[in-house]
Amino acid sequence: MAQVPQTFFDALAVRTWCGLALTALGRAREEIDAINVYPVADGDTGTNLYLTVESAATAVEAVFAGHEAGSGAGPARKPSLADAARAMAHGALIGARGNSGTILAQLLRGMAQVLSADGETPHTDGDGLSRALRYAADSARQAVAHPVEGTVLSVASAAADAAQGARGDCGTVARAAYAGACAALAATPGQLAVLERAGVVDAGGRGLVAVLAALVETFTGELPALSALSGSPFPARARVEPADVVTHPACADPAAGEDRGDGPDGEGGPAFEVIYLLEAEDTAVARLRRRLDALGDSLVVVGGDGLWNVHVHVDDAGAAVEAGVEAGRPYRIRITHFGLDDAHTRGGGRPPRERVQRAVVAVVPGEGLAGLYAEAGATTVLARPGEPPASGELVEAVRRAHAREVVLLPNDADLRHTAAAAAEQARTEGIRAALIPTRSAVQGIAALAVHEPGRRFDEDVVAMTSAAGATRYAEVAVAERQSWTMSGICQAGDVLGLIDGDVAVIGSDVTTAAETVLNRMLAAGGELVTLVLGDEAPEGVAEHLRARVREAYLAVDTVVYRGGRQGALLLIGVE
User: Fold this and answer.
1) Of these four, 205, 275, 420, 509, which has the most CB atoms within 10 Å of its CB?
2) Alpha-carbon distance 397 to 402, whole Å?
3) Which residues contact 146 (CB under 8 A, 6 or more apart)?
4) Going edge to edge, which strands form the sheet with 307-314?
């Protein structure tokens, strides 16, 4: 469907831009991951940018939904420009992934500060958009401890410069910003030697170009050609062999992640990436910046108004977290080791171990399931509630599996793009990789149950895919907030029963809701019921459901597993 252009930058334009930017990054994600060579070819940048914008778009949609719900029986109310811009910035901040995502979050925050400066203004014009882009570029550069030219920061500054030279409506300014960004992106190989050697442009800058192309589409209804305005073509889909890339000796791991925006070119680097959200006062954050800068590199601290996103590469991860504790309250802490045992970093001291023929790499939502999958021979990546893994973590798991052939089980519909990026990166490293689009851990269990490493690869993938597809999945969880669902409006604290991803039951009792869900699933037939209990599931719910199956469905077997801290109270699978 053709996009209806927005005349002014108002709340609807913010919503439209977020949606179009998410679509654009979804299209370009694999391309961006593939050209990510600074400081290592690890395939995270496109996925991290996608997840950051996805969080921003979700926050904006929630603001619109809240206003529509609050209008009652009257005409639907729309949020103000300030409401939408602040939601966009906040969503990006709390969902920022990797260094490129953190910098993009600061760019959006800088724009939001200008767009929401006058809370009563319903919209802004081209002049206001130009000021927003300028402030965004400047604030992002200030957030990076040691900026390096030839990165996303250079592209953002060039876009802002071009926008300031334009005169006209929002469409005119957006086109100018996009043209400036394209030209700057084409110049990045001449600014960073590692990009020139690999024959690619900067991955973070390429992502920003996609976001600015979505801004042009928002105001003109037309998506510009990638390099048509720059006057200089650049390698949009270059594929880089790892052997051709100069890497940090201590950082050649997928989790090291992408275009960092600062740091040396090809010299040794720290062993850990530390990321966390931080509630702290401005004065405490100023001290935190100084301390973290002394501990490591690639330091980016973005945010404000009491909430910050902290990203740094260090050798002492504990000290980086302790610094956050001293500054305020850190949470959503993520520490990633930069794979010292990886083939890119290993010295010649010992011969590499022989690869196995085939492995399964699976994302699992709880420690209990991680143990279950590991017992079945899978290499696991733990997905903590609210913290989905990045593609770099999946690539690291693929490397850890050390196999010639790998089957990926994302076990979550939202991880499809992430897993696809990991599979693509694995293929560039000579690994035969297949993605089975499992949407729940119970589908992954079904796939793993029929996995036979001795079978031909294609036959094994088909059998696993068939088993996963024949498994319906459900979960029982507690609503965190009021929301519209397929079954009506739920309130915070309500028990929700979701079947195949859609809310089918809204209730107040976990056991009752779980029984209703199970009965609906078995009404379509089934031979095996799989129950995965979370730590907070009520005592006796599994035995109640098992008894219910025995009484009403004589030919159906039931198996029960402990999932640990998996987010949902209960996962249900019916094969």
Assistant:
1) 205
2) 9
3) 262, 263, 297, 299
4) 296-304, 307-314, 272-280, 328-337
CA distance linking residue 105 with residue 89, whole number of Å: 7
Q: Report the relative pairing of strands 502-507 and 495-499 from DSSP bridges.
A: antiparallel
Spatial neighbors of 165 by CB under 8 A, at least 6 apart, are 176
Report the candidate in 451, 386, 447, 393 with the shortest Cα–Cα distance to residue 422: 393
Residue that the structure tokens 């305005």 belong to? 229
What's this model's pTM, rounded to 2 decimal places? 0.59
The DSSP result for 121-184, as a single string, is: -SEE-HHHHHHHHHHHHHHHHHHBSS--TTSHHHHHHHHHHHHHT--SSHHHHHHHHHHHHHHH
Q: Which residues contact 92 (CB under 8 A, 6 or more apart)?
A: 52, 53, 55, 56, 59, 101, 104, 105, 108, 109
405 forms bridges with which residues in the sheet?
358, 432
Which DSSP category does 380 fall into?
Answer: E
Give the pLDDT of residue 407.
95
Q: Determine the angle formed by the axes of helices 367-375 and 441-449, rounding to 10 degrees.
A: 10
Question: What's the pLDDT at 43?
Answer: 62
Torsion sign (Cα): 463, 465, 470, 472: positive
Q: What pLDDT does 74 receive?
A: 53
Residue 271, classed as helix, strand or coil, is coil
Residue 132 to residue 163: CA distance in whole angstroms: 10
> Residue 199's pLDDT is what?
87
Could you count the other beta carbons within 10 Å of the beta carbon of residue 1? 3
Query: What gap in Å lies between CA 249 and CA 343, rounded to an integer?
Result: 11
Q: Which of 238, 227, 135, 118 is nearest to 181 (CA)?
A: 227
Cα 382 from Cα 374, distance rounded (Å): 11
Averages of pLDDT over each 10 residues, the chain, 575 residues: 64 93 88 75 75 90 80 65 93 87 93 83 85 95 90 95 90 94 93 86 93 94 64 38 29 32 48 85 92 89 91 85 90 67 36 75 86 86 78 82 92 87 84 92 93 92 92 91 85 91 90 92 90 88 91 88 84 93
DSSP alpha helix (H) spans, 165-248: 170-187, 193-198, 203-220
Residue 77 exposure: Cα atoms within 13 Å on the Cβ side: 13
Name every residue whose Cβ is closer than 8 Å to that of residue 279 and which is 6 or more positions away in sequence: 306, 307, 308, 328, 329, 331
DSSP secondary structure letter of residue 384 = B
Residues 302/93, Cβ–Cβ less than 8 Å: yes
Rounded CA-CA distance 339/392 in Å is: 11
* Cβ atoms 170, 148 nearer than 8 A: no
d(CA 554, CA 207): 55
| pLDDT confidence of residue 39 | 52
Contact indicator for 55, 109 with CB cutoff of 8 Å: no
Burial state string for 18-28 with b = 16 or more CB within 10 A and e = fewer than 16:
bbbbbbbbeeb
User: CA-CA distance, 210 to 178, in Å (whole number)?
Assistant: 9
Structure tokens at 101: 């995502």
